[in-house]
Fold:
Amino acid sequence: MNTDSVQYDVAILGSGPGGYVAAIKGSQLGLKVAIIEKYTKFGGTCLHWGCVPTKALLSNAELYEKARKGKEFGILFKDIRLDYSLVKARKDKMVKKLSMGTDFLMRKNKIDSFQGKGRLIAPGVVQVEGEQVKEVRARKIIIATGSEAKIFPGLKPDGRTILTNKEILDLETVPQSLLVIGGGAVGVEFASIFSRFGAKVTLVEMLPRLLPFEDHEISEEIRKILVKKRIKILVNAKLEDMQVRDGNALAKVSTPDGGIQEIVAEKALIAVGRRPVTENLGLEKMRIETSREFISIDENMQTSAPGIYAIGDVVPTQALAHLASHEGMLAMEHIAKGSATPINYDLVPNCTFCSPEVGSVGLTEEAARERGIEVVTAKFPFAAVSKATIAGENEGFVKLVSEKKYRQILGVHMIGPTVTELVAAAATAIGLEATAADLSHLIHPHPTISEGIMEAAHALYNGAAIHI
Structure:
């Protein structure tokens, strides 16, 4: 066994958006940082099999959809067709480019890297099993090993017909039919992508509504819109069995009326959530407490073991790339300075990049009521927003959730064009404790999609919006 002679301030297991951002922050704070990655490239699931490649495909799907509506805008094409090999090539090019950018940032910040699977073997010691077995020693350790697709017991994706989020990105052609199991963000995004590429899509969700963590009115609106886009949706439906037969996926799904529906599709995507990657990390040896496979942490991301932190999808917070990054920065601030500003988990933005987009931040109406808050809400439709009409994308609405006395904004929930770009401004408003009066008095530029937020604020503050 080779023992690395360098003593690091911090060793990080995993180079996803939590791990690599934590490494950069640590370097900026003057710490000597090592990052340990089991794959040959930095970036984790988000860069290689998640956020980046799916959004690249969504960008192509959006352009293809607009091209097919060209006549509406006075633009005529003799032949509109999809070359999926070029779609895939562009997606791979985007991933490669951003991966190279991450490599550059590691070098720029003088972060040492070790390729191999890391495991905690003693306080301050990580064993790295790669081409050679090494030991990395550090004063502090951050676990950022991320998550992987959750699979039903007894169901094993074969990578050809029954797929996870990884294999579906490597398809060579658009399937004629696609069955998506799971109506969360991942399932809805892939349903939106491939339906626009021409696949016949069926979306199955076990819970009563799609995007179950969004406000109930957003969930209902996305269901209506996706049905209009010819996506077949089954809610309150449970996958009972799935087999590969004659090259197709054959699924048996139980329906709310007690019946069983058989669904045949060329490809099936399992998108029922994520599970933390915590096996064989040495957690038991280090006496690190876990709950339902997740690593337990305090407000500074510290585990029950002295000197060991955990961030991102391995801890029981929202499994979001941007949150993992902030948790990584928080952990490094605490390591470097002994204190850090805790994260307000009520202010973590959610984005679903389907068509139309869904963006939200803050409390849903249901969550606010559960906390005993006397709630007032207001909505404004994008059908009455000039820019949305100009763009030909005026489905959806903005919904504001506030408390009754001062009309302080507690939640902003949107479904419509480019709303994922508006969520940061909404988070700022909530974080600064803005009221409906504050928002309505701020001048929003015309014509922009952002006017929908201002109009909803007028409705909440004055009892009526202007342009409806």
